[in-house]
Design goal:
Length: 567
C-alpha cells in the first residue's frame, strides 16, 4: 500500500524519548483549572514548539467539579470512601439514613423501589446514567460499591460539557460517595439479613466556573494553512498523577507529532493536535467548548479525529478491540495487524472520551488502543485496576507497550495525513445503515413504511462502493474528492452518533447505533393499534425524514467525489 507507514518512520518511535517526556509530565497532579495543570501544560507546549509546531493556549470558562473530603460511616463506624465529581455537597452534619439496596441501579431497579428522600446503595462504579436515574427518582444520596478493593474517581454528570441554561437541571441532585467491595458488601449483607444499618455520607465538592486551558498545536500542510487537517487529541488533566491516564497518551501524541513533523513535505493535510482540560472534572468541557467556539472551522476543515487515551499500560496486550467509526475501521485493522499481527475485531465508538465532534459530523477513531486481557464484569473498562486511583503511577506504563501503541497511533495518523485522497470508507458506513434498516423492516411491516428509505440506503451503498480507488490523480481532483468525502461524513456521522441537531451535544449516556433510528425502534416495540403506537409514529415520521435527508446529502456528496476521481 503506497500510503502505508514507512518502516523507517515506525522504527524511529523512541521508547526512551517518550519515557523521558512521561517522567516530566508525571511530576504534576493535573486537576482541571489549577496552576499545576497549567505548569505541566507549559512543558508539553515547549516540546511541541521544539518539534516545529505553531502553538497557542486558549483559556475559557468551564464548569468544573473537584471532589474534596469524603466521610462515610456505618452505625457510627468510619469506612474508607471518596466523593464523586459533580456530587452535591452533603448538608451540615452529613446525610444519614438506612440505605435502600437497588442492585446495579438499572431502570428496572429504580422502577420497582420507592427511593424518594433515601440513600440508595448501588453495585459498581458511579456513572452518569445511575446518577440521572437516582436524581429523577428523588433520591437524596447514592453510595456505590466498588467491584473490588480499589475505589475509582468518576465524573457523574450526564451533561456533555459545561451546562447551559437548557441543561443545568440535568446535573446530579444527589450526594454521591463510593466505598470498596468489602465495606459496601457488609452494608448490603446487613440489609439482606433484615438489619437497618444507618449510613452517614459526608461529601465536600468544589463545583463552579474556572478558567481552563487548551493547548492547540498546528503543523500546516505544505499547500498552506487553510487546507483540511487531521485532529489528534487527548486530555491533559488527570486524577491524581494520572501517569497512564493520560500522561502516557500525551507522551505518545508528542512522539507522533515529532516524527510527522520530520516528514512534513509528504503530508497532504494539516495536523492539529489538542490537549484538553476538563475531561476528568468537567465532563469533556474543554473539547465541547472547542467544538462550539470553532464550529465553523471544524465543519469546513476537520477531516477526521484521532482520540488518544491511556497508552502502553503494563500488561495491556489486547489491541484487537481498538474503537473506530465504521468508515475508519479499515485503518484501525490495518494498523493493528501491521504492528502486532493481531486480528482486528474492533468495536463501536462509545459516547465518552472527548468525542465532542460527532454532531459536526467528524469521523473518529481510537481512544485507548490496548487493554488488559481480562476485565471484571462490573469494571468500566479493561485499562487496569489502577485506573482513576492514586496508584496510576509510572510503574503502570510499560515502555515496550508504549512504543507498540504509539506505532499504531502513528500508522493511522500517517494514513490520514498522507493518503492522496482521504481514506474514508463510506461504503462500509452505508452497508451498516442498510443492515439497521432491514432489521426494522419486519417489525414495522404494515405499520410504518420504510421500504423507500431502505432502497435509498441501498443506492447510497452502491454509489459509495463505485467510487474508484485513487492512487494518483491530479491535485485539484484529489482536493475536490476530499471536500466531497468530508461532506458525506457531515451527513452520516450525526445520524449514527447523535440525537439532536449538529449544533448540540448529546448527553454522556449510552447511545444505540444509528441513534437517529431509535424512534423507529421505539415504534416497533409498541403494541399495534394503541394510542402509544400513534404517539410513537409522530416521532418515527420525523426520524425517517431526518435519515432520508442525511442519505440525500451524503449521496450528493459521494456523487461529487466519484465525479472528481473519474475526471
Amino acid at each position: 500500500m503506497t500510503d502505508a507507514l514507512p518502516d523507517s518512520l515506525a522504527a524511529a518511535v523512541s521508547g526512551p524519548g517518550m519515557m523521558a517526556n512521561l517522567r516530566e509530565i508525571a511530576r504534576w497532579v493535573k486537576l482541571s483549572g489549577t496552576a499545576e495543570e497549567r505548569e505541566a501544560l507549559g512543558f508539553v507546549e515547549g516540546r511541541m514548539r521544539e518539534y516545529g509546531y505553531r502553538t497557542q493556549v486558549l483559556l475559557h470558562d468551564a464548569f468544573i467539579s473537584l471532589p474534596g473530603k469524603a466521610g462515610v460511616s456505618v452505625d457510627g463506624k468510619a469506612v474508607t470512601a471518596i466523593t464523586q465529581s459533580f456530587s452535591q455537597p452533603s448538608p451540615a452534619g452529613g446525610l444519614s439514613g438506612v440505605p435502600v439496596y437497588i442492585g446495579h441501579g438499572t431502570e428496572a431497579d429504580f422502577a420497582r423501589t420507592d427511593v424518594a428522600g433515601r440513600i440508595v446503595l448501588v453495585e459498581g462504579m458511579a456513572t452518569p446514567a445511575v446518577a440521572q436515574r437516582a436524581s429523577r427518582a428523588g433520591a437524596a444520596g447514592q453510595l456505590h460499591i466498588s467491584h473490588h478493593g480499589h475505589i475509582h474517581e468518576m465524573c457523574i454528570s450526564p451533561v456533555w460539557g459545561s451546562p447551559g441554561t437548557s441543561t443545568l437541571d440535568d446535573l446530579p441532585r444527589t450526594v454521591v460517595c463510593s466505598v470498596d467491595d468489602a465495606d459496601g458488601g457488609a452494608i448490603r449483607d446487613a440489609l439482606k439479613a433484615g438489619g437497618s444499618p444507618v449510613v452517614t455520607l459526608h461529601a465536600e465538592v468544589d463545583t463552579g466556573w474556572r478558567r481552563t486551558p487548551i493547548l492547540v498545536c498546528d503543523l500546516d500542510a505544505p499547500d498552506g494553512p487553510d487546507a483540511p487537517f487531521v485532529l489528534m487529541s487527548g486530555h491533559h488533566d488527570t486524577w491524581y498523577f494520572g501517569v497512564m491516564d493520560n500522561g502516557s497518551a500525551n507522551a505518545g501524541m508528542m512522539e507522533v507529532a515529532r516524527l510527522v513533523a520530520q516528514r512534513r513535505s509528504a503530508l497532504r493535510r494539516g495536523f492539529r493536535i489538542c490537549f484538553w482540560s476538563g475531561h476528568s472534572h468537567g465532563r469533556y468541557s474543554g473539547s465541547a467548548w472547542y467544538a462550539d467556539a470553532h464550529w465553523d472551522e471544524l465543519d469546513r476543515r476537520c477531516a477526521a479525529h484521532v482520540n488518544v487515551d491511556s497508552l502502553g499500560g503494563a500488561g495491556a496486550t489486547v489491541l484487537e478491540n481498538a474503537a473506530a467509526m465504521t468508515e475508519l475501521r479499515h485503518l484501525a485493522a490495518e494498523a493493528v495487524q501491521a504492528v502486532t499481527g493481531q486480528a482486528y475485531a474492533g468495536k463501536r465508538k462509545a459516547r465518552n472520551s472527548d468525542e465532542s465532534f460527532v454532531g459536526i459530523g467528524v469521523p473518529s477513531m481510537l481512544g485507548s488502543i490496548s487493554e488488559q486481557p481480562a476485565k471484571h464484569a462490573q469494571a468500566r473498562n479493561a485499562l487496569g485496576w489502577w485506573w482513576h486511583t492514586p496508584h496510576d503511577l509510572i510503574d503502570k506504563v510499560d515502555e515496550a507497550n508504549l512504543v507498540r501503541d504509539t506505532r499504531v497511533l502513528l500508522a493511522v495518523c500517517w494514513r490520514l495525513l498522507s493518503s492522496t485522497v482521504l481514506p474514508l470508507d463510506h461504503a462500509a458506513t452505508a452497508a451498516a445503515l442498510v443492515a439497521e434498516l432491514k432489521a426494522l423492516a419486519a417489525p414495522l411491516d404494515g405499520r410504518f413504511p420504510i421500504g423507500e428509505l431502505v432502497a435509498k440506503a441501498e443506492a447510497l451503498h452502491a454509489l459509495a462502493a463505485a467510487i474508484p480507488a485513487a492512487a494518483e490523480v491530479p491535485e485539484a481532483s484529489a482536493r475536490a474528492a476530499d471536500a466531497a468525502l468530508m461532506r458525506a461524513s457531515r451527513a452520516l456521522v450525526p445520524v449514527d452518533y447523535a440525537l439532536g441537531d449538529r449544533f448540540l451535544h448529546t448527553a454522556a449516556l449510552p447511545l444505540p447505533a444509528w441513534a437517529a433510528l431509535q424512534p423507529l425502534r421505539d415504534l416497533a416495540a409498541t403494541p399495534a393499534g394503541t394510542d402509544a403506537e400513534r404517539h410513537a409514529a409522530v416521532d418515527a415520521l420525523r426520524a425517517r425524514n431526518r435519515v432520508a435527508h442525511a442519505i440525500r446529502e451524503a449521496a450528493a456528496a459521494l456523487g461529487a467525489a466519484r465525479a472528481a476521481l473519474a475526471a
